[in-house]
Design goal:
The strands form three sheets. A seven-stranded mixed β-sheet has the order 4-10-9-8-7-5-6, sandwiched between helices. Strands 1-2-3-13 form a four-stranded mixed β-sheet. It has helices spanning about 5-15, 70-85, 95-105, 120-135, 160-165, 175, 190-195, 220-230, 255, 285, 305-320, 325-345, 370-375, 380-390, 410-429; strands at about 40-45, 45-50, 55, 110-115, 135-140, 180, 200-205, 235-240, 265, 275-280, 350-355, 355-360, 395, 405. About 40% of the residues lie in helices and about 15% in strands. α14 packs across α15 (about 410-429). It folds into two domains: about 5-70 and about 320-429, Aspartate Aminotransferase, domain 1, CATH 3.90.1150.10; about 70-320, 3-Layer(aba) Sandwich (Aspartate Aminotransferase, domain 2), CATH 3.40.640.10. The structure holds 4'-deoxy-4'-aminopyridoxal-5'-phosphate (PMP). It is found in: Cytoplasm. GO terms for molecular function: glutamate-1-semialdehyde 2,1-aminomutase activity; pyridoxal phosphate binding; transaminase activity. Pfam families: Aminotran_3 (PF00202). Its cofactor is pyridoxal 5'-phosphate.
Length: about 425
């Protein structure tokens, strides 16, 4: 494959855009450097770079693209939005339609508010929890990533962890002191933290199914115990479902697993590919938000018609019967194929998969927490990533990210991917 144009573009980008990318995880820093490949066009499960190379896409834009690229139903909705005017700064009908649709899928969202990104959604749930409890501290789990706002960049996950900067420069020490980080899938450290600081804790924030140190499910009973301990301390439970909502079922991880939080942060899939975030939860807590309550949150672009219509259209596609069964079916074929391919080449891997999302870890150990994910072989992953890229299979350039299937992937795409993986694993020996 020839990457001449991508390389040249990256050189030019470096002169004008910091690091040449608009989000650090897009750089190839975590896979040994080099120029990231620039895409020109996407359709269904494929995209094409500016040199004309075709890829099967498992990045799915880090999660949002669950229907594949340029899905006709979503494209039609976005076109309609463009024709009718994209921003009014007034209420629209679309916001209400979408709020009702989200609530139908996720009943714990008694009241919602739309924002523009997952970062904003998470940031605001913390403010609302602090307003409601009149406490300041939050507890989070090591390796979970909750966007780039100050409070949650303390011992954060995929992007920062990949870059080896778990604490971002520019986050005040005083802010970091308001955050306690405990390991995922263990309750004893949480108990300990709550014993020490419980009466100061506003909220416990968690990805109920982790997407940021790979796909990691909570052990049976873990979320239930987190919820019980959180409430016992008088704190609120916040689920960050920015990745997990509508990824594994039509609804949230909370609907799949039957554990509901007090507040939920959403993003990614619910925008159908356009910028979006949302947060919501119990009415009595959400009434803290302006204009009803004293917790301020606002947004010029919040609830904009294009994101609303795109999001509604996306949910209309994935609410159809059989969508998650099909993602699961293809996910299982992919998982088996990858395991066999690795085994044939004598390469040790572990795969964590839930439905149409999976992570390959280069290790022979199981991975249920961040420490274990961190200990897996990043150098081997980096080689695998590049071998796959050169065979037209696009993965996220980090050992901590997931592969995401879309409704556009077909069994033949999966077979091609497995064939590419056989060669890629063999090249690692
Ligand atoms: N929470 C989670 C679980 C995420 O994975 C992300 C983004 N990867 C965010 C929050 C932040 O969302 P955004 O990038 O839209 O700000």
């Amino acid at each position: 494959m020839n990457f001449t144009k991508s390389k040249a573009l990256h050189q030019e980008a470096l002169e004008h855009i910091v690091g040449g990318v608009n989000s650090p995880s897009r750089s190839f820093k975590a896979v040994g450097g080099g120029s990231p490949v620039a895409m020109a066009r996407g359709e269904g499960a494929y995209f094409w770079d500016i040199d004309g190379n075709q890829y099967i896409d498992y990045l799915a834009a880090y999660g949002p693209i669950i229907t594949g690229h340029a899905h006709p139903h979503i494209t039609k909705a976005i076109t309609k939005a463009a024709q009718n005017g994209v921003l009014f700064g007034t209420p629209t009908e679309h916001e209400v339609v979408f709020a009702k649709k989200l609530k139908q899928a996720m009943p714990a969202l008694e009241k919602v508010r739309f924002v523009n990104s997952g970062t904003e959604a998470v940031m605001t749930t913390i403010r609302v929890a602090r307003a409601y409890t009149k406490r300041d501290k939050i507890i989070k789990f090591a390796g979970c990533y909750h966007g780039h706002s100050d409070l949650v960049l303390v011992a954060a996950g995929s992007g920062p962890a990949t870059l080896g900067t778990p604490d971002s420069a520019g986050v005040p020490k005083s802010t970091a002191q308001e955050v306690i980080t405990v390991p995922f899938n263990e309750t004893a450290p949480l108990v300990e933290a709550l014993e020490k600081w419980g009466d100061q804790v506003a909220a416990v924030m968690i990805e109920p199914i982790v997407g940021n140190f790979g796909i990691v499910e909570p052990k049976p009973g873990f979320l239930e115990e987190v919820k019980r301990l959180t409430h016992e301390a008088g704190a609120l439970l916040i689920f960050d479902e920015v990745i997990s909502a509508f990824r594994f079922t039509y609804g949230g991880a909370q609907d799949l697993l039957g554990v509901t939080p007090d507040l939920t942060a959403l993003g990614k899939i619910i925008g159908g590919g356009l910028p979006i975030g949302a947060y919501g939860g119990r009415v009595d807590i959400m009434e803290e938000v302006a204009p009803l309550g004293p917790a301020y949150q606002a947004g010029t672009m919040a609830g904009n018609p294009a994101s609303m219509l795109s999001g509604i259209a996306c949910l209309e596609v994935i609410e159809q019967d059989g969508v998650y069964e099909q993602l699961d079916k293809l996910g299982a074929i992919l998982e088996q194929g990858l395991l066999q391919a690795a085994s044939k080449a004598g390469i040790q891997i572990t795969i964590n998969r839930l439905k149409g999302a999976l992570t390959i870890y280069f290790t022979d150990e199981t991975v249920v927490n961040y420490e274990q994910a961190e200990a897996t072989d990043g150098a081997l992953f980096a080689k695998f990533f590049k071998e796959m890229l050169h065979r037209g299979i696009n993965l996220a350039p980090s050992k901590y990210e997931a592969w995401f299937l879309t409704t556009a992937h077909k069994e033949e795409d999966i077979q091609k991917t497995i064939e590419a993986a056989e060669e890629a694993f063999a090249a690692l020996r």
